[in-house]
Specification:
single chain; 282 residues; alpha/beta; D-Maltodextrin-Binding Protein, domain 2; 2 domains; 6-stranded mixed sheet; 5-stranded mixed sheet; 10 helices; 40% helix; 24% strand
Length: 282
């Protein structure tokens, strides 16, 4: 019995020693962002990263007492590069979906905005609207289904542009795949260029992106139409993505985000960059 107790004690010591060795003290973090998704994140004329998430990353890292470096990474492959250890976290307007949760861990969400359609003002769909301004796709009511049916009818047979590997692409595939021609793009900027050129009939993207574009000089010929859509394939808001083994890092980010909500910093940054408050509130 004595030998058994000694063996058990040694096993416990080994387990705790291994856990301590595995635990990481985060002092330096590399964060990836796309750098091509204004106003969330973008590259300015001098080649410097800027935007809502760039400023937010600096604020959160200061609260975490961690030195952070933000690097650009193309959206296609941004999660595989995280898994490969190229960086420690992603802040790139990434919505928390069930599919993504299977491969990465997320912090709590820090922002959420609806997705909607954009057309040119001279488009046949320029006056399209539904009886509902907002649709949530996690528990669809009869009124919401009627609005979705109207969306399908309006864009049936038309070419809809969307950025590749996004929640908006997933929505089109799931809800309108048999009705529309989906055209994918590597960046929102290239998608917007084709919309202006009339090579697509409409675009689908986040309201947070399109509001600033429509209100800019370059966006005077564009218009947001139809209902804003959330939940379901659009996920549960935007969070910081990390490797699943780094759940402790996600928790550090979550605590910092909570503090940024509590003192109003998150809302101030959201209004500054989106012109409306897209910040998490709870």
């Amino acid at each position: 019995m004595k030998n058994f107790k000694v063996s058990l004690l040694m096993a416990v010591i080994v387990v705790f020693t291994f856990a301590a060795a595995e635990a990481k003290e985060w002092k330096e973090i590399t964060i990836a962002t796309e750098g091509a998704f204004a106003p969330w994140n973008f590259t300015d004329s001098s080649g410097k990263l800027d935007g809502f998430e760039i400023e937010l990353a600096a604020d959160l890292c200061n609260r975490m007492n961690v030195k952070c470096t933000v690097v650009p990474q193309a959206w296609d492959g941004i999660i595989p590069a995280l898994q490969a250890g190229k960086y420690d976290a992603i802040m790139a307007g990434m919505s928390m979906t069930d599919k993504r949760k299977k491969v990465v861990a997320f912090s709590r969400y820090y922002a959420a905005t609806p997705s909607l359609f954009i057309v040119l003002k001279d488009s046949p769909s320029a006056n399209f609207s539904t009886t509902m301004d907002r649709i949530t796709l996690d528990d669809i009511s009869s009124d919401e289904q009627a609005a979705l049916d109207a969306v399908g009818k309006e864009f049936k047979g038309k070419v809809i542009g969307v950025q590749n590997a996004t929640i908006q692409e997933k929505f089109l595939q799931q809800y309108l795949g048999d009705a529309v021609d989906i055209r994918g793009y590597d960046t929102q900027e290239n998608l917007e260029l084709d919309l202006h050129a009339g090579r697509i009939d409409a675009a689908l993207g986040a309201m947070s992106y399109w509001v600033s574009r429509v209100n800019s000089e370059k966006g005077q010929d564009m218009k947001m139409v139809g209902p804003g859509m959330t939940k379901g394939p659009f996920g549960e808001g935007v969070g910081v993505a990390v490797r699943q083994k780094d759940a402790d890092l996600a928790e550090l980010f979550s605590k910092a985000i909570d503090a940024a909500i509590a003192d109003g910093t998150l809302s101030k940054l959201a209004v500054k960059w989106f012109t409306f408050d897209a910040a998490a509130t709870e």
